[in-house]
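Forum > Structural Biology > Help requests

Title: Can anyone predict the 3D structure of Adenosylhomocysteinase?

Hi all, first post here. I have the sequence for Adenosylhomocysteinase but no way to get a structure on my laptop. I'd be grateful if someone could post the structure tokens.
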Amino acid sequence: MEYRVKDISLAPKGRLMVEWAERHMAVLRSIKESFSERQPLKGVKIAACMHVTKETAVLMLTLKAAGAEIALAASNPLSTQDPVAAYLASEGVSVFAWKGMTEREYFESIARAASIEPDITMDDGGDLTVMLHKLSIGEAKGLDYEVAKEIVPPDAYKRVVGGTEETTTGVIRLRALEREGKLLYPVIAVNDSMTKYMFDNRFGTGQSTLDGILRATNILLAGKNVVVAGYGWVGRGIAWRARGMGARVIVVEADPIKALEAYYEGFYVTDMREASKIGDVFITATGNRDVVREEHFLEMRDGAILANAGHFNVEISVEDLERISTSKRRINENVEEYTLRNGKKLYLLSEGRLVNLAAAEGHPSEVMDLSFGNQALAVHLLWKKKGKLKPKVYRLPAQLDRRIALIKLKSLGVRIERLTPKQVEYLRSWTA
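Reply #1:
Sure, ran it for you. Structure tokens for Adenosylhomocysteinase below:
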């Protein structure tokens, strides 16, 4: 078994972290128990590109208990929990991840995972999937392709029966491939499951983003003007939790329906041009690029803080920030101070990368239990249906979504109502 981690001697610490997470992940424990008995993935090769956290480790070990062979790479250069990576390696998972990767090391690690010629891919952001697609057509563009062509067979995609995608950004990329007729194999958009986006995106990112900002800066949120760019499920989670901590929240949104929703939920809604003049803390959560850029930086208050909760580090234009700054210095591991040419100082957190994972520990285990329950069931479904699905983006079937919710409710000790036969019939009838 091949692996590359920062320090394998950290494995005992990682084991304790993973045990703690698993204790709070009842859905995955239930699935793991079932998988262990039946071994439905025996001999299946899985290449995964995901945040290497204690919660991800519970998912990987669940799939391993089902009989799968797994190669795991990080989906962000700064999000890996090194003790967890070491523990997974000690448990027989081929891990290629450590915190603080260079860009080349990041893509090399994804290529190492892909080089096992997987049956199933698991992605968080689409980098693994896109890499395999670039190789298939000999796309001579991008560092990912340049690195991968030296490591991964160009026809590695031919063995893949299907894939999964964890996050909004990755689903956007997959739908673009599907729209252009270039998607090579079926992919289940786990992000589109209700037990994922309504909980992970809203409750998980909402809490963990503020956790990352506070760990990095220790500022008082109460009384601050917090600008949240994007009012999707992630943005609304951040906005509601920032307001709950006493912040005055300003929402910047391009979609008129989402903007109207934010307005009627009591937030001040405006564009980034106006928000840049009054914000103290800026949090991006759009999935788009250059959301905060040069003209906004120059209008900001002295001391404004910039944080990103989107998957890729493109939402805050670091290129613009570098160009209009006369100097920069590192305040701590996750805070860089930029002095602009107008004399103002701005503070960028975690290099503009995912602040909740780079500066904190990511989502709480309880909410990732739902997301990764979806992932485990999606992998199982893909293998059961190998050769029967077209190269399209699919949602996980509603009954599996409901199964996850029911397991979680049972673990919480929550009872729900059961419809009587007459009630069921009434809801099915048009005659009433």
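The mean pLDDT is 96. The longest strand covers residues 325-332.
Shout if anything looks off.
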